[in-house]
Specification:
Number of strands: 16
Shape: elongated
Structural class: alpha/beta
Number of domains: 3
Radius of gyration: 27 Å
Helix content: 25-40%
Number of helices: 22
Strand content: 15-25%
Oligomer: single chain
CATH superfamily of the largest domain: 2-enoyl-CoA Hydratase, Chain A, domain 1
Largest sheet: 8 strands, mixed
CATH class of the largest domain: Alpha Beta
CATH topology of the largest domain: 2-enoyl-CoA Hydratase, Chain A, domain 1
């Protein structure tokens, strides 16, 4: 035996089980090492463990799988927790599960071992009825672990991304989100993107090599793309901290699982006191614009409005809020954008929101002021016909209470999609509202072909004919509206309808007909 070997043997210190455990634990908690953690801190980014600590109530985190590593022997000491931090804890006193991607460990790439850990918490969420939150940031699959026929043939992905919406899923996208980080984000019930994040099927480098063209990451799948174009981003945050706070707030509106009602909240003082202001916000002239979000603020409990997909399809507002302390979902036309007309993106936005509310026992309120669906070459190429019927089919399958209030104008097929024609359970129209198959000015042109500039007197006569029988009282005459109301009575009407439509037989729990509706389409 050499002198070096003898010396090395003499220096070996036998550790107690307690000491060995602490050494292993310390190594796992160190994540990718101080250098990488310091680099993140310098950029103002939280690491995965800091994100978990911020998400969960203090002192409630129970971690699982701290000591797992890659199955590749050479990577045992390089993959603490195998790049995924997972466990359970509490959010505002309610149990929840969390999976946080640790980008300091091989870019939080996924391996069969870390996938096994994530799958455990998916099953836990579904079976035990707890929300699941993904704190997402990953380079995608870990190539050495997945390459070859053995890697592919060993995959077990039959239900890996299946959504039955037994319990809410949330995803916060913080940086590069490829592979499972992308899949979990687009299948989530709520996805918040931190500014600077990128979500795509493949990385810009791989896309550039495959196409031979340089690809900019933000142009490929940056947060603006998903907030404004694809609609995958339900919210956008400036910082990690804001993204996590939005995730926590979203969950405060939802039940822990689909077998219970959302939690109620105290009604803030002053809620409903500004109802009369609605009359000043909404012009009686149907051609003048306004921002329907100001109406929603007067109808909802003070400070309770939580927008969903605010930057996407702006002619339609979707938001969670509370009315009388109860969570409701609002779908409202916004004349501030495109006059409130509905395009293909608005159809997708509405359908997605119907799925969310129906899956988690959230009553729906429609606030209607729309001139119909946008028509034309671009609309048809965006498959608006199919999207209109998707929306209508989804609405027909909804079993939570549906309330519809027509505020000013309500025309055409969109009358049905926005809760008319028997598709809502409770209906009202403001006393100034107008309802018809078509805007009377357009109807004159279609039916009579009269040009107002060439034949102004005849046009006025025909317009008066087409405008007959379009008032709220005409709709009420055939029970198309249950009530004709003063605009200031909108909140009171909704409160009364919510009380009437509560299903005591089922304790307010719906049938969840939309629970397996596609999450992205």
């Amino acid at each position: 035996m050499t002198q070096e070997a003898i010396k090395e043997k003499e220096e070996v210190v036998e550790l107690s089980r307690e000491q060995e455990h602490e050494v292993r634990r310390t190594a796992a908690l160190a994540m990718g090492g101080s250098r990488k953690l310091d680099a993140r801190r310098a950029k103002g980014e939280l690491n995965a463990r800091e994100r978990v600590a911020l998400l969960l109530d203090p002192g409630t985190f129970r971690e699982s799988g701290l000591f797992i590593t890659s199955a590749v022997v050479a990577d045992h000491d390089k993959t603490p927790a195998d790049g995924k931090i997972a466990g359970s804890g509490e959010i505002n006193g309610r149990r929840a599960a969390v999976v946080a991607y640790d980008f300091t460990v091989k870019g939080s790439s996924s391996s069969p071992v870390s996938n096994k850990k994530m799958s455990h918490f998916k099953a836990l969420s579904a079976n035990n009825g707890t929300p699941l939150i993904y704190l997402s940031e990953s380079t995608g699959v870990r190539m050495p672990d997945a390459m070859g026929g053995t890697g592919m043939g060993s995959a077990n992905s039959k239900t890996r991304f299946l959504r039955k919406r037994e319990a809410p899923w949330v995803s916060a996208a913080f940086g590069y989100c490829f592979g499972s980080a992308a899949w979990h984000t687009v299948t989530a019930d709520f996805a918040v993107f931190r500014k600077g994040s990128v979500l795509a099927v493949s990385s810009p480098g791989l896309v550039s090599r495959a196409t031979g063209q340089e690809v900019d990451a933000q142009e490929l799948g940056g947060w603006k793309v998903h907030a404004d174009v694809t609609g995958y981003a339900d919210a956008v945050a400036d910082t990690d901290e804001e993204a996590i706070e939005l995730a926590r707030r979203f969950l405060s509106y939802l039940p822990s699982h689909n077998g219970e009602l959302p939690p109620t909240a105290p009604i803030p003082s002053g809620s409903g006191d500004r109802a009369e202001e609605i009359k000043d916000i909404v012009p009686e002239s149907r051609t003048k614009t306004y921002d329907v979000r100001e109406v929603i603020e007067r109808v909802a409990d003070t400070g309770s409005v939580f927008p969903i997909k605010a930057r996407y399809a702006k002619s339609l507002v979707t938001c969670l809020t509370r009315i009388g302390g109860q969570t409701v979902g609002i779908i409202a036309n916004n004349p501030k954008f495109k006059g409130g007309a509905l395009d293909a993106a608005a159809c997708d936005k509405a359908t997605s929101f119907l799925v969310l509310c129906d899956s988690y026992n959230i009553p729906l309120v429609h606030l209607v002021d729309q001139p119909g669906f946008l028509i034309g070459l671009e609309a048809e190429r965006q498959k608006v016909a199919g999207k209109i019927i998707n929306w209508m089919n989804a609405l027909s399958l909804v079993t939570v209470p549906k309330i519809s209030v027509t505020m000013r104008k309500n025309y055409g097929q969109a009358f049905i999609n926005m809760g008319g024609g028997g598709t809502a359970d409770a209906t009202a129209g403001w006393w100034s509202s107008e309802v018809s198959f078509m805007d009377p000015t357009s109807a004159v042109a279609v039916v009579h072909g009269v040009d107002p500039k060439e034949e102004p007197e005849l046009y006025a006569e025909r317009l008066a004919e087409m405008a007959k029988g379009t008032t709220a009282y005409d709709v009420g005459r055939v029970y198309g509206f249950e009530q004709v109301i003063d605009p200031a009575e909108t909140r009171d009407f909704i409160l009364g309808a919510l009380a009437d439509q509560y299903n005591a037989r089922t304790n307010g729990i719906g049938e969840h007909n939309l629970s397996t509706w596609p999450t992205s389409y």
